[in-house]
Amino acid sequence: MAQVSIQSAPALSPRGLSPEALAQKYARMVPRYTSYPTAPHFHAGVDGQTYGDWLAALPEEVELSVYAHIPFCDTLCWFCGCNTKIVQRYEPVAVYLPKLLREIALVSERLPRARRCSHLHWGGGSPTLLTAADMRRLGAALRSAFPLTEGAEFAVEIDPRDLRDDQVAALAEVGVTRASLGVQDIDPQVQRAINRIQTLDCTRDAITRLRAAGVRDLNVDLVYGLPYQNAERLLRSVEAMIELQPARFALFGYAHVPQMKKHMRLIPEEALPGVQERFEMAEAAAERLIAAGYRRIGLDHFALPDDAMARRQAEGRLRRNFQGYTADRAAALIGLGASAIGQLPQGLVQNATPLHAYGEAVEADCLATAKGVALSEDDKRRAGLIERLMCDLQVDLPDDLAEPAAAQLAEMEADGLLVVTGNGVAITELGRPFVRCVAALFDAYLNPVQDRHSVAV
């Protein structure tokens, strides 16, 4: 594509609108675009038979990314939008693991013999609910079914509150190279309001033990837009985490969707910051991270210059999938476990979410695919365009997509969100927080009246 320089924008838009006024104007409910088409448009017409055929059709020596979902937590964080089940006993986890191991075998049987895995990820829920012995079982099964390439990344999501020494040793033993730690906010009042009590000492201790075991690539997740949060409080969390020197930060905006996640009704809505406050705290945190030497990655990630994610962005090879921004280069993503999403060249698939439905499928030696979407050529084209916008903040548009969006692009250009040069579109720094709104212009499926998504800022 023709390279269009991303322009720095003034504090005010050409129309004299402040960033806060723009935040109010573009506070639209649009997808996060971790896939295209997005999950609300998956349907039951794509089933286990379809998925099995897609797996078998992958080319020999295909490079894979593999995601294993552990859908259990021992406490419910009220801000959480993930598919997870709260358990107080280990028995449900122990029952689930053999089913996950069976799915690994079922998928492996349908893949070409010569496959390679360049990225392995355990997510949740809380993978650290697994015992050390079960971590070893899962790690051995995955490495056997999906042999890792040299230099492959093996990442695990960590809840610092329940991380034991034997688990740290097991994670190191199975070859984990990166750990992603949920922190969200260190303020006690905010923590009480979201039902996640996690002291700074707890987080610091988990990082120290992981590094001592050889797991040195660390990510920290923070969330803005939580109850009782403001820019000053969020910056205290940012400062505390900068001192711990993780390689990456993810700065996610809290999506308050109590109509979809009933436990979010436990959060006091009157304590939630408004659109302008959300915008101010996100930009204040971003400025502080950049000042500390982190590079801003796309919409909401930050990485040290020598981290793989920063290098991929510099090379124009940053990717985006349902986990967010990633340095993962694989052509196919295999999702394992209840509710897990996979992405193949032919389309997107999602496993059954209810644990009983997932378990019944794999016990019957069937793939647990419950829904998905086959990609048309137009879907693939739009998916690639949206991904490049989200990752590179610039794209060249084909005529048939540029012309219908011309009026809206002109409006956004007048507001200082982007620069249009011929068919080239480049997001400005002023427009970076609104890149999802730009991407939505090219979403053929989006129905603003029916679809429910998080607010763009």
Question: Which features does this protein show?
Answer:
457 residues, alpha/beta, nine-stranded mixed beta sheet, 35% helix, disordered N terminus
Give a brief rundown of this model.
The chain is an alpha/beta fold and 457 residues long. The protein is built from 15 helices and 19 strands.
Explain the overall architecture.
It is a single chain. The chain is an alpha/beta fold and 457 residues long. It has 15 helices and 19 strands. The protein has a 9-stranded mixed beta sheet with strand order 9-10-8-7-6-5-4-1-13, with helices on both faces. β11 and β12 form a beta hairpin. α4 runs parallel beside α5 (165-174). It starts with 18 loop residues before the first helix and ends in an 18-residue tail after the last helix. 47% of the residues are buried. The model is unreliable at 1-10 (pLDDT under 50).
Form type: globular
Termini separation comes to 29 Å
* Main beta sheet strand tally, sense and closure: 9 strands, mixed
Q: Roughly what fraction of the amino acids lie in strands?
A: 15-25%
Q: Unreliable segments (pLDDT under 50, ≥5 consecutive)?
A: 1-10
How many separate helices? 15
Topology, pairings included?
Layout: H1 19-25, H2 48-56, E1 63-70, E2 72-73, E3 85-86, H3 91-110, E4 116-124, H4 132-145, E5 148-158, H5 165-174, E6 178-184, H6 188-194, H7 200-212, E7 217-224, H8 231-244, E8 248-253, H9 275-291, E9 295-297, E10 301-303, H10 308-315, E11 319-321, E12 324-326, E13 332-336, E14 341-344, E15 347-351, H11 355-363, E16 369-374, H12 377-392, E17 394-396, H13 399-402, H14 406-414, E18 418-421, E19 424-427, H15 435-439
Helix pairs in contact: 1-9, 3-4, 3-11, 4-5, 8-9
